[in-house]
């Protein structure tokens, strides 16, 4: 049984993590902490893996403390910069377990979204045309989504690597309907009440189409990815810092 | 048996019409004419209904001649303006059959597209959100499609009639991914090799979505609509000029 | 302001209704009752419309009591038979407001599902082929869904009324993949973790396809339909018993 | 320039191949042969790669002759058994170029279909639920399609390899709507006028869905795969017999 503590346990994501850990046969819930609680209560005597879902302003501090406590950490909080990641790597090197500490940070724990992004990059070189449509709830303030931009960049890079030219497009007159062009790839953002987070990647050749779509209906969609990361850290994950759930998928 | 003549019989659409008439149990192919042929060979002794699929520059002249010949006409050629339509009405009034001549003109003969447009207008008042995505082959020069603009206007009008306000959209930063706003409705245009002509209308409320999609895979998709129009003209269509296939659908 | 009381207020659906009424600008929440509470506390002095979401075994009794109390009722509980509906009609006739009492019962309050069903019936006569795919969570015990069966019957009836024959199907060998044939229409049921309740109706002609899809992502999807019914009963709904949300849609 | 000859050049597929070769910048059309033509006219002096699209009853003989002529062969004809493949391998070993002869046989040249199948196998282990829907024109005599059966087997094997149990399904009553169960995976077949060959693979976890869909709209959809195979045989394809287009994709 993997002993799992949760930091940010009362938060929107953290409460889902608590429920998911309680529902997993191979895990037991250890400590559940929230803002104001003392993180040094967590150590290797009571915890194998910590799941940290808080806010960007406190997450780095939390992770550095947990590294000093010698426990492995799965981080779901967003807002990580290269500079912050460097601080994590340095803390691991100077911490109590420089040779076997494991920290995992992911911008997206939805397995469907991570797979869609990966498959899109793999497929890109085999099609003349490619476009990305992302669809979200209307409360989202940025468009297009970071995931869609990431997917578009991945497709563009794969096309370049394969020597493909620009996507075919004879449009002469347009009032904006052709969307945002990200690295040569047209990206469209739909905002619709009732939706959560969705992405559809369309590829076309003469006579054929390939469509890859990921739907995240609610926050529960991140839990299989979180549990997968916990198991990997308790198992055969590489030591040190790992960024991105695709590193833990066997693809 | 309805005797059907085809004008523009060797053209891309006309050749499909010839095949469709030959394949219809209740029709027989009469004359097939093309550029340079004498349209006055067509009259009521040999033809009940003419199908005219040519080019905008000659279509009006063809239709006026056919009205003078006293035959009913289904017109698939595009490019009709209010002025041209007025000339057709005048020609009917001054022609040999002012009281029972029938002329039918349609911008779109794809039944699926006409139905999708109609259903979208009906559904619009019941949803907070609505967006339109049209998808076409990359050789299309205009974006978005005329059909998508028509659908967006219909949705917008239905929303206004029902007293609905603007669609919810909290987007603060966007580089163009939210598409073209037509009368308050966001319209997106995808261009993908392998596609022909497709439209998807998305409606959303809290917790629910309604999607209506029309796919036109090839020119054959117009034939059921053309045959329906021929049967209507040979049957109970109203006399005079009728514009739009929705007039012949029982909705 | 319409005064709305909720019976079954602590139930899965009832608690959504309480929230929806609280969120509606034109309604105010009156009484919220649950199992064991005295329904005769509800009367015209405190309530315009009652929303009743309980269980089939008690719903008829509740409705009869509420009719005797003289309040209008929207019923979301399922399990209504012709016999039970007759008892409701009789209670209205013998109640305190025989000439202006309004009672509304609906098997499905999801507007998207009701519209999809209605549009499918309208479209059916114009296509050679039609099939229905319903998709639900894997805990559902019956397949296909009642809604899918209803849709298939509606399509079949529309085809018969229009003189259409059987759908084309040259399948010679099949191990069950062609689904259940309901009144000549093939119906497929998908069961997938993560889904809630979804239905897709596919229509095809040579070269074209029309797809109508309704997604109900969660119970909140029923609230727009419930609020619509409340407004109709407080407004211009016909007196007596009305069954089915399509009666309140302007189609 | 790769010199390409086509055997079965007047056939439904062969005529598309002729057009595709003529449209490729890096290929030139050499000989075009059909039934009754002498295959020994093809040799290394005039041809680098032959594309053979005929019928199962003559394909093996053609391939053996072409191997004896010393030219590399791309075979699109179906109906290959293990026994026939063994004969091809033997012919290569005993032919004029045992060490560098290349023969390629593929059951499906649609890149989108091959990728969808491959991605489905990769994704399978990460989802609780998986189902397959294939959709074809109504003239198809077998259901489900061979491709859908292949995909279902691949998903089932991947689930077993990962230690996953059965897909969740609480269905108690069903009249056939749940489809055909292939190795534990439910497979549904839709037959709709207007469609050609399509496959959709649905994966589900709590709160999320991944959908992979391949559409083949017409025979032209096979040409990018055929040209890819020709280029591979003229390039770095392994010597000997290769079966399946996935071997030529960089995945």
From TrEMBL, chains A, B, C, D:
Catalytic activity: (S)-2,3,4,5-tetrahydrodipicolinate + NAD(+) + H2O = (2S,4S)-4-hydroxy-2,3,4,5-tetrahydrodipicolinate + NADH + H(+); (S)-2,3,4,5-tetrahydrodipicolinate + NADP(+) + H2O = (2S,4S)-4-hydroxy-2,3,4,5-tetrahydrodipicolinate + NADPH + H(+)
Enzyme class name: oxidoreductase
Gene3D superfamilies: Dihydrodipicolinate Reductase, domain 2 (3.30.360.10), NAD(P)-binding Rossmann-like Domain (3.40.50.720)
Domain spans labelled Dihydrodipicolinate reductase N-terminal: 2-109
UniProt binding sites for NAD(+): 8-13, 37, 76-78, 106-109
UniProt entry keywords in alphabetical sequence: Amino-acid biosynthesis, Cytoplasm, Diaminopimelate biosynthesis, Lysine biosynthesis, NAD, NADP, Oxidoreductase
Gene Ontology CC: one annotated term: cytosol
GO BP annotations listed: diaminopimelate biosynthetic process; lysine biosynthetic process via diaminopimelate
Keyword DNA damage: no
Quaternary structure annotation from Swiss-Prot or TrEMBL: Homotetramer.
Function: Catalyzes the conversion of 4-hydroxy-tetrahydrodipicolinate (HTPA) to tetrahydrodipicolinate.
Protein name in the entry: 4-hydroxy-tetrahydrodipicolinate reductase
Organism of derivation: Bifidobacterium merycicum
Lineage summary: Bacteria, Bacillati, Actinomycetota, Actinomycetes, Bifidobacteriales
Gene name for this UniProt entry: dapB
